[in-house]
Amino acid sequence: MQSNELRHELFRHWSARPWVIAHRGASGLAPENTLTAFILAVEQGAHGIECDLRLTRDGHVVICHDASVQRTTNGHGFVHEHTLAELRLLDAGYTFTTDRGASYPFRGLGLRVPTFEELLAALPNHVVINAEIKSAPWDPADRQRGQAIAERVVALVRQRPDLRARLLLSSFDAAVLDTVRRLDPELAVALCTLPLAPLPEQLRGTLERGYDAFHPMDVGFDQHGAAVIAAAHEAGVPVNVWTVDVPDRAVELVALGVDGIITDYPEATRHALTRAASATATARPVTP
Q1: In this structure, which topology does domain 3-68+116-283 adopt according to CATH?
Q2: Could you tell me if 139 and 172 are in contact, meaning their C-beta atoms sit under 8 angstroms apart?
Q3: Strand partners, 216
Q4: Distance between CA atoms of 230 and 257, rounded to whole angstroms?
Q5: What pLDDT, on the 0 to 100 scale, is given for residue 2?
Q6: How many Å apart are CA 243 and CA 265, to the nearest integer?
Q7: Alpha carbons 182 and 170: distance in angstroms, whole number
Q8: For 176, how many CA atoms within 13 A lie in the half-sphere containing its CB?
Q9: CA pair distance 281, 286, nearest whole angstrom
Q10: CA atoms within 13 A on the CB side of 232
Q11: What is the pTM of this model?
């Protein structure tokens, strides 16, 4: 499938596939969802970054994956229980380690939980931002916060229409994506899925609702991948798979036709894909 066959303009103007999308930044090498991790990902050649949006008690949109701050900071409690000022006091590099706790190289370096607007300001304009709106459909209060995040992000885009060319909003909650669509039909949206059903059934929600991209977990691709990717491409929908941290697996998925690899290790992934593409080009027979 050529890029001009993709449904949404965002992807048609993106760089050549396969895309390397840094999962919470270069989170295998730096504390996840911090400006340090995002900037490192850009320096390592990521085409885009993925981040997670949550709402503070006083209504600010911040970057944090978990509902609680405990796993990634020196704080306790839920994000929505804290004001932005309270979150600013936490050390977002406190728990990061690559050697099972022998060292914590980012402690005390001033890493903070960033706001969404701070992330936008920190990244160059050519980097696509896949912002996942966190929303638990089974929790009415959390779903309400997800709706509020959608409203705030759309309001920001209205002030800065240039963001439509670099912003992809995703969620596991289709109701949140439908809210985004209702408020701004031009914004690109993607449905994230878990392997609670076979891969073809996961794709169905994206196609039936007319979403712009499909973000499944790397489960079931060896059995259903080729057919699912073909069906998505027929509808003009790219397939971006998470979270792929083994470079050889990224190469296998791209060979199946996957468009984007969401990974904690963007540089290693990019190098593996480049080597594979070069080897394929070298092995291709020359026709007269």
Answers
A1: TIM Barrel (3.20.20)
A2: no
A3: 193
A4: 8
A5: 45
A6: 10
A7: 15
A8: 31
A9: 10
A10: 32
A11: 0.95
Report whether 115 contacts 84 (CB < 8 A).
yes
User: What whole-number distance in Å separates Cα of residue 35 and Cα of residue 25?
Assistant: 8
Angle of helix 140-159 versus helix 174-183 axis, rounded to 10: 30
CA atoms within 13 A on the CB side of 233: 15
CA distance 79 to 114: 12
Contact 228, 255 (CB under 8 A): no
Q: Where are the domains of the chain?
A: 3-68+116-283
Catalytic positions: 23, 65
* Number of helices (H), then strands (E), in the chain: 10, 9
Counting every residue written for the chain, the total comes to: 288
User: Which residues are bridge partners to 21 per DSSP?
Assistant: 48, 262
pLDDT at 59: 99
CB-based contacts of 93: which residues, under 8 Å, 6+ apart? 31, 34, 36, 104, 106, 107, 108, 109, 111
For the chain, residues with pLDDT lower than 70 are 1-4, 283-288
